[in-house]
Design a protein that fits this description.
four-stranded parallel β-sheet; Rossmann fold; 272 residues; 2 domains; single chain; 9 helices; elongated; alpha/beta
Length: 272
């Protein structure tokens, strides 16, 4: 997103409409701090527009507290921007329920934006994380490499489709020296840490069975937490179990500016 595009987003946002960044919530302090950092950067971008953070669980401020703070800052309407990757149970049920309760108490109308999903800024960030992970390693042909996307997992049957779609989009121009319209020949696998199938262990076994020279494990996670640590442990184990393959772990998406821009775009799209 260009500076001009960002400026246009900010210009169309009325000052009386506040923005509530909705985080999942985690007991991991690093993960919680990263969510707070995104909210702070969102405030910097929107400048004159009130921005607050509200977590769904585990840590404060809660969603209700975030709405209360925006009300106290004079907002007559609120756009809730979910800092979530996919529209599973939290985005479709838990967050709307919390927002509805907070709206009823405050008397302020709240509109919920779409989740980050497959926003182009997020896809580009995922590609960059892969490039960062392998740029200092010895060259490896695409045909000898596998990308393993790992998601948190959800009981929502669409979780598999969501991650498959993101992985397919990210496979375009995986090598950042390629044009974005080109498709990498790197094979793509997916796995989940919890609930959904294939499990992370199954995905690792599936990838290893193809005897690739390299597997790049790409955590499709926003922030630090237990899920990321489980992925780190699994990759360390894979390195010992399948030593013929080079196992490379990419960084999580994190509180990168691309996440902020994706969130801004989603939020601006639902301004009445």
């Amino acid at each position: 997103m260009s500076q001009q595009s960002v400026a246009e987003h900010v210009r169309v946002w009325p000052e009386e409409i506040g923005c509530l960044v909705v985080g999942h919530g985690t007991v991991n302090e690093t993960g919680a701090s990263e969510a707070r950092e995104v909210a702070l950067r969102m405030q910097e971008v929107l400048a004159r527009v009130p921005v607050e953070l509200g977590f769904l669980e585990c840590v404060e401020p809660t969603i209700s507290q975030g709405v209360e703070r925006l009300a106290s800052r004079g907002c007559s309407m609120i756009i809730a921007a979910p800092l979530l990757l996919f529209s599973a149970g939290h985005a479709m049920r838990d967050v709307p329920e919390e927002l509805a309760r907070a709206s009823k108490v405050s008397g302020i109308e709240v509109f919920q934006a779409e989740v980050l999903g497959c926003h182009p800024q997020l896809v580009a960030l995922s590609q960059r994380r892969r490039h960062e992970a392998i740029r200092l390693l010895s060259p490896c042909e695409d045909s000898e490499s596998i990308d393993l996307f790992v998601g948190r997992g959800s009981s929502d049957p669409e979780a598999l489709d969501h991650l498959l779609e993101f992985a397919a989009l990210s496979a375009r121009g995986t090598d950042l020296s390629l044009a974005q319209s080109q498709t990498s020949q790197t094979r793509t696998h997916i796995g989940f840490v919890a609930v959904a199938k294939p499990s992370l262990q199954e995905a690792i076994q599936n990838a290893a069975s193809e005897i690739p020279r390299r597997v790049v494990v790409r955590p499709h996670l926003l922030f630090a937490g237990k899920v990321e640590m489980e992925i780190q442990t699994a990759v360390a184990s894979a390195q010992k179990t399948y030593p013929r393959t080079e196992w490379v772990l990419a960084k999580r998406l994190g509180c990168d500016h691309s996440v902020v821009l994706s969130l801004l775009d989603r939020a601006t799209a639902v301004i009445p």
